[in-house]
User: Which sequence fits this backbone?
């Protein structure tokens, strides 16, 4: 948080504001560096001195693992929360729609590539809440089979703003709501609405990215635990209106670190070689029509409004 995104060096103004001496800080290096950061001694299959040639943050590494190397390419990681990143190329895009601007990666002496990032606080943890607090399901995997018992959410919207809303709203006063209930609704409707909430929150971020970058998403690459839920991924494609693609190698963060290190030591020749190494495991294509998609999202936006101004701050 002390780095200047334009110079890729420590920011003197921020250092002065926080009283941090530049001499206390390490040198900022590329994400993939042929000059190496050093070596480490290892045992087992990596016995001996192992060169350290790559260093990326979690979500940045996942971007590399998903080979999102061109402007407009995006990936969404589904964990306790979600992290959706969009490659904006060598252009530093200052968000006006509630997203974060970050360095995506820098390979050796090549120019840095930037990204827009949208973080969502509660996604698969909402499924865990159904399991642990409400005891609606016995396991997270049961959420798919139960949700498939109904054709839709029966008018229910669940906005899991348990700790406020993150991107693109940034409202700490928001709290979770379940709206649209009637006597017709069952536990299956609630579980399906929970899966839809994961997808609608991702759509909020995707639309903000489109507004900031001017680039419409053509396909969303996905990874993380929720991608094992076939229904949720189909809902994501339907709600976004674009195909959703899952890679053959699910551990994209580790893969991205390996790709970056391999580039640095010459194991792979260039980014195109990494693209050739990436393989798709599954693709979900949207089946909803535009009317279904627009009607569903309009209801979601109404539900989000019900979460706001719930907590009063002194």
Assistant:
């Amino acid at each position: 948080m002390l780095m200047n995104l334009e110079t890729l060096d420590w920011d003197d103004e921020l250092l002065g504001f926080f009283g941090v001496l530049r001499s206390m800080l390490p040198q900022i290096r590329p994400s993939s560096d042929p000059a190496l950061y050093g070596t480490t001694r290892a045992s087992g299959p990596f016995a001996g001195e192992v060169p350290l040639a790559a260093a990326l943050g979690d979500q940045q590494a996942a971007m590399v693992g998903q080979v999102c190397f061109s402007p407009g390419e995006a990936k969404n990681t589904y964990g306790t929360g979600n992290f959706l990143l969009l490659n904006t190329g060598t252009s530093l895009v200052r968000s006006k729609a509630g997203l974060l601007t970050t360095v995506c990666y820098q390979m050796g002496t090549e120019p840095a590539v930037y990204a827009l990032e949208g973080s969502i606080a509660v996604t698969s943890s909402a499924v865990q809440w159904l399991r642990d607090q409400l005891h609606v399901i016995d396991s997270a995997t049961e959420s798919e089979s139960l949700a498939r018992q109904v054709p839709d959410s029966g008018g229910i919207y669940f906005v899991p703003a348990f700790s406020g809303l993150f991107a693109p709203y940034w409202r700490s006063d928001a709290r979770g709501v379940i709206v649209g209930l009637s006597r017709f609704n069952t536990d299956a409707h609630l579980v399906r609405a929970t899966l839809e909430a994961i997808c609608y929150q991702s759509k909020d971020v995707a639309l903000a990215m489109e507004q900031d970058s001017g680039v419409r998403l053509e396909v969303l690459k996905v990874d993380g635990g929720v991608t094992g839920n076939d229904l949720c991924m189909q809902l994501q494609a339907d709600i976004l209106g674009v195909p959703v693609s899952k890679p053959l190698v699910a551990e994209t963060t580790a893969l991205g670190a390996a790709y970056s290190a391999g580039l640095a030591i010459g194991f792979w020749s260039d980014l195109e070689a990494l693209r050739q190494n990436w393989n798709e495991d599954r693709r979900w294509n949207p089946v909803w029509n535009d009317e279904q998609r627009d009607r569903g999202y309009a209801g979601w936006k109404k539900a989000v409004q019900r979460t706001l101004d719930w907590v009063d701050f002194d």
Observations:
- The mean pLDDT is 95.
- Residues 79 and 224 are 6 Å apart (CA to CA).
